From TrEMBL:
Residues 148-161, 170-193 have a biased composition (Basic and acidic residues). It comes from Drosophila madeirensis (Fruit fly). It is a multi-pass membrane protein. Residues 1-133 form the BAP29/BAP31 transmembrane domain. This is Endoplasmic reticulum transmembrane protein. GO terms for cellular component: endoplasmic reticulum membrane.
Length: 234
């Protein structure tokens, strides 16, 4: 194998190793994304499309060269008796052309695969970061909603307690008004009983005076009759 095809084969083996690293769970998408966004790769990424098209152009050229060699040695026709060494050299060259075709073809294919894998890994890392940010936002929104609900519950509890205290105050006011009305009625009854007692006392005093007057009259009348009877006897 010539030096050029040795380099292309080494490039192919490196591509296979890189594809295995990207496919197997060796590192998380976060680490790959940080690695892709490192300073060195960021400097290379500015001219990545140039490197990509350059590598693809070189590999396509070697692929076309391999195809040309395959067609050249495939169309070889044996004329008469051919020496064994010539036939072996022809078969060896055809084998090399086929080998170079597969090496360059797989190298081109893996370049496309690696580019796609890098894009997918970066997109996955960005999606994971966005999902984490969305989860944090959702959790903060949920916490805020819970705090608002708790505040509403406390406000409702305060309103309910205020309503209950207002109801109790209204009941107490009504009870005070009832007690005040009863007290006024009792005062009126007491005043009526007092006035009634005063009138009874006055009536009693009047009757007592009349009784004393009658008793005096009776006493005076009894004395007069006693004196009259004594005079008649004389």
């Amino acid at each position: 194998m010539s030096l050029v095809w040795t380099l292309i084969a080494g490039f192919l083996y490196a591509e296979i190793a890189l594809v295995l690293l990207l496919v197997l769970p060796v590192a998380s998408p976060y680490r790959w994304n940080r690695f892709f966004k490192s300073k060195f790769l960021a400097m290379l990424a500015q001219q990545a499309h140039i490197y990509f098209f350059l590598i693809m152009g070189v590999l396509v050229l070697f692929l076309l060269e391999a195809i040309r060699e395959m067609r050249k040695y495939s169309n070889y026709e044996q004329t008469g008796e051919v020496h064994l060494n010539v036939e072996m050299q022809h078969s060896m060259r055809l084998f090399r052309a086929q080998r170079n075709f597969y090496i360059s073809g797989f190298a081109i294919f893996l370049v496309l695969v690696i580019r796609r894998l890098v894009t997918l890994v970066s997109a996955q890392a960005n999606l994971l970061a966005q999902s984490e940010a969305s989860m944090k936002q959702a959790q903060s929104a949920t916490a805020a909603a819970r705090s608002l609900m708790e505040d509403k519950k406390t406000d409702k509890a305060k309103e309910a307690s205020e309503d209950s205290t207002l109801n109790e105050l209204n009941k107490l006011r009504e009870h005070v008004q009832e007690l005040t009305s009863e007290l006024n009625r009792e005062k009126k009854d007491k005043e009526a009983v007092k006035s009634q007692a005063e009138s009874i006392n006055r009536e009693y005093d009047r009757l007592t005076e009349e009784y004393s007057k009658l008793q005096k009259q009776i006493t005076i009348g009894g004395k007069g009759t006693t004196a009259g009877s004594s005079s008649k006897d004389d």
